[in-house]
Amino acid sequence: xxxxxxxxxxxxxxxxxxxxxxxxxxxxxxxxxxxxxxxxxxxxxxxxxxxxxxxxxxxxxxxxxxxxxxxxxxxxxxxxxxxxxxxxx
Length: 89
Hints:
Elements: E1 2-8, H1 11-23, E2 29-33, E3 38-43, H2 45-58, E4 61-68, H3 79-88
Antiparallel strand pairs: 1-3, 1-4, 2-3
């Protein structure tokens, strides 16, 4: 799972890409930043790469960055802190 940031050269390109992402069932979250002509979305790697390629072929995509989603540490790693807080109360 990654977060993708796409930047476009025009509003029509931005709008087409946003419509494509909204229609995609694998996209977990999608946000449009119209002032900076960017879209941020989150999806599984394989599905997202296919979507980015499709959007690129449609024209107007000038930048794409990918950022891995970092999972929080397992719950047991929080236990010592919780015990410490309870012990000091």
